[in-house]
Request: fold
Amino acid sequence: MKRSILLSTVAFATLLALPAIARSADDDRADSLPEVIVTATRLPAIVADTPGARVIDAATIEQRGAIFAADILTDIPGLSVTRSGAYAGVAQVRMRGATPGKTLVLVDGVPVNDPSEINGAFDFSGFDLGDIERIEVLSGPQSSLWGSAAIGGVIAFTTREVDGLRAEAEAGSFNTVRGRLAVGRANEAWALGAWVSRFDTDGISAADAADGNPERDGFDSTTAGVRGRYGFAPGARVEGTARWTRSAGDLDGNPPPTYALADTADTTASEQWSASGRLLFAAAGLDHQISVSAIDLTRTNEGSFASTFTAERQVYRWQATGAAVAGRVDYTLGAEHEDDRGALSTGASARTGVTSVFGVSRLQVSPGLSLTGALRHDETDDFGGETTGRLSSAWELPRGFILSGAWGTGFKTPSISQAVCDYCFSGTPFPVLRPETADSVEMALGWGSADGRIQGRATVYQLNVEDQITYVFDPVTFDSVYVNIARTRSDGVELEGRALLGGGLDLTLAYAWTDATDRTTGARLLRVPEHAGSVTLGWSGARLSGALTVRAEGDQPDAGGVREAFVTGNLSGSWAVTPAVSLTARIDNLTDTHFQQVFGYGEPGRSGYVGIRLRY
Reply:
């Protein structure tokens, strides 16, 4: 039954192929969909002209009732979220089949991937969206823009500039309580704002309760931040942001003698700071940005395999943007230096660094045809140099069609954990690792109706990764090491679209077919569903607004078995009592479906929440 529902969802999305495009706060009353701009491309670009680019804005996040990033990133076709247990379990993303650590995550331009994590990946489990204004996603290799760790793509979060007071409170299932408070002042000359959010729940068992694990595993998370800017001269200003998150939760482990996943007293806690400062000014016909950013992270796991990890990163960047040839050529050039440090499970620490130069240029060949090229060279302290590039184009065709395409290369240096071979054992010297490399090609055909009420896009792509780093175990010698042996390939189709239906209703669809395989063994890559899709029906009136989302994923190979297909639905809504006060409600997992995102780990059944939202 689940399989037939999933296939019906897939067929429906394929037939309609309508868009997944961001909305502004006023779009619910608009007669056409807006033109959306993405900025993580270094040069601002129109989403419809940029293969693999998507934007989720604050209005969409609010309409969906999304609390954490993992709640809404699954709407992006070709992006899968894997969470090893609800709430406190590690949540990571795979873009177009690329393993965790190959997606670069930015917050206000600050790279926040964890240098001490095995793959160098970012954990989305406690990433609160209360202060987020927009999410930009660039699928496909973006190393020519952002360097290492961007083989799968880039996810860029931008925090909100607050003018006034915003507050929210919510309570519901599993003794869950949540609150947010933000206050600030903003005008043309300056802005200063601060926010804090808190989430606390008794949770459910991380190990699936259906397998005989009744113990609840709780989770709490606190996020706070500040953001400001000051224009001290015409065309010159300074900007700064800082964000702090602390989370703690209960986990389940693999206790002896069976070492099967079961209820345990394991816990995890993490604390992360990220901060950046930028100076922006115009000089010599260019718009300059000079920035300094840093992160500091500590993770502690208590249980059968207790360990503490710490990590630091500093990035220094200069970037300049200009135009030439009567505005037909836009370009950005820059340089940056990054230092990473990490202390691992054994207490041993290591350091890596990279110095980079990059350039991006876009040529408007004709009113309907543009060409964009990017080139970057990264010189690493330990793994030599690597040059990556990307070429893309967009061509506006008659009757509302846009044909676009891109070719690009990528690379990823071994993580600190892989480079020093954390968790390794061998009677011989550990292998010397090489950076992973990738190449990708994609084509997209978009369409928009003449009245601007319907937009959609279909994308086909292929992503190849060479020298992928894999952890191997020899059952004869018991040697356990990281080696460059794997070659992977992902072929995929992504369909997305959105339509304004009238009467305050809008429909958003997304679907992805992903054929991700290990070319060394011929096996499908783990934790990458072949079919995945979602349908969201939103509505907005003078006082009532909300959204119904149905999400489906097909069978997925996983360590220890196959994670079965599932279909689940969420409903959220709000009622404006006054222009400043709204009551909110949401129901997750409407049909009380038993499902897993990762094999063996449970997800919440039907759950409900009510709250209040204030805007002054």
User: Anything to note?
Assistant: Residues 1-29 have pLDDT under 50 and may be disordered. The CA atoms of residues 242 and 275 lie 4 Å apart.
